Amino acid sequence: MIVICFLALVYGLYIKTTKKQSNLETNLINYNLNLEKGHKITDIDLIDDNRILFTIKNNDKVYALIYDIQTSNVTKIDTANE
After folding, report:
1. What is residue 59's predicted lDDT score, i.e. its pLDDT?
2. How many CB atoms lie within 10 A of CB 29?
């Protein structure tokens, strides 16, 4: 009985691991924020399904960019650091 259960377990694992898995389609998306030399992205936040917020630091200045995924439009938010 133990041998039969062991063979059933091995067969079940074999079926589970060799089962044809669905091919997930991956999309390669390139974003270009046109950052200047010395600018570093310090944080990335998802605002909603269509917009991404990038926090960028350059030396001691910090500013943000909002990237619209659908239109590829970049909006810069620049505030004075005090």
Report:
1. 84
2. 6
Domain positions in the chain are 35-82
Is 34 buried (19+), middle (13-18) or exposed (0-12) by CB count in 10 A? exposed
Structure tokens at 47: 């605002």
CA distance linking residue 60 with residue 5, whole number of Å: 67
Q: pLDDT digits over 40-53, tens only?
A: 989 999 888 888 89
**pLDDT value at 26 more than 80:** no
- Contact call for residues 39 and 26 (beta carbons, < 8 A): no
CA dihedral sign, ordered 31, 36, 37, 41: negative
- Residue 7 has which token pair? 């063979």
